[in-house]
Input
Amino acid sequence: MYLNTKFYLEKSGFMKQNPEIWTTIISPKSSWFDIDLIGLWKARDLILLFVRRDFVSFYKQTILGPLWFFIQPLITTIVFTIIFGNIAKIPTDGVPPFLFYMAGIVPWTYFANCMDKSARTFTDNAAVFGKVYFPRLAVPISIVITNLLTFFIQFSALLAFIAYFYFSGAYIKPNIWILATPLLLIQTAALALGIGLVISSLTTRYRDLTFLIGFGIQLWMYATPIVYPISQVGEKWRGLLALNPMSSIVETFRYAYLGSGGVIFEHILISATMTAAILCVGIILFSRAEKTFMDTV
Output
C-alpha cells in the first residue's frame, strides 16, 4: 500500500510540491545486522505499556492475585525440601535445606519464565504483529522487565526467610558478593532473552520447538546446581557444568546470600562469554525472522 501510494504521488508531481509530507519511511531491512535500535528506543513508552498489560492482566481474574508470586516458589521449595532434603538427603553444604533450595529457585524461576515467554513471541503476538508496525523486539524486552517485577517480589520473600534463619542462629554467611546481584540479574535476563529470541525465530518455521520448550526447561533445571551443590559434582564433570551459563549464576547468587559454595572465576568468564554470544545471535536471528514470519506463523 505504501509503495503504490508513493509511486502515484511521485508520478503526479505531488512529492515535488510537498516534499515534507514524508516524515517517516518504514522500509524492509536488507541486512542481517540491520537492527533498528533507534526505533526501539523511541518505542520505550510502548514497552512500558506492554509491561503494565502483562503484569496486570495475568492475575486480574484470579482469587489470590499477586499472592501467587509468593505461593509458587514457596510450594516448590517445600517440595524440594521434602524430596531432596529429607528423602534423598542430598547435602546442602551446612545451609538449611529450605534456604538452599529457595536461593536457587528464585533466580531460576526468573530465567525460566523469561525464556519461556520470549520463545513464544511470534506465535503469541501474531495477531498484533499482523495489524500494526512497531519494533518487534519491544515485546520480548517487555517480558524481561515484567518478570523482573515478579522476581523482586519473590526475592523479598527470600530475604525475609534469610533474615529469619539468620537471627535463629543458622549457619548463613552473607558477604560482599551481594553487590554483584545487579550484574547477575542483567546476565540472567540477557541469557534468557537471547535463548528466547533464538527459539522464537526458529519456531516461525519449525513449530515442533514450541512443544519442547517446557520439557527442555525442566531438563535444564536439573543440569543446574539448584537441588544439589557443586561440591557434590565430581571433578571430571565440573568442566561440563561450566558450559551451562546458569550454573555460575545460581552458584554465585547462593554464595552471596548464604555463603554456600564458592565463586569460580573461570566459570563466570565462560558463562558471561556464552551469554554475550547467545544474545548477539538471538538478536540477529530475530531481526532476520521478523521480515517474513507472517508468511509462516
In short: Confidence is low (pLDDT under 50) at residues 1-12. The chain has 14 helices and no strands.
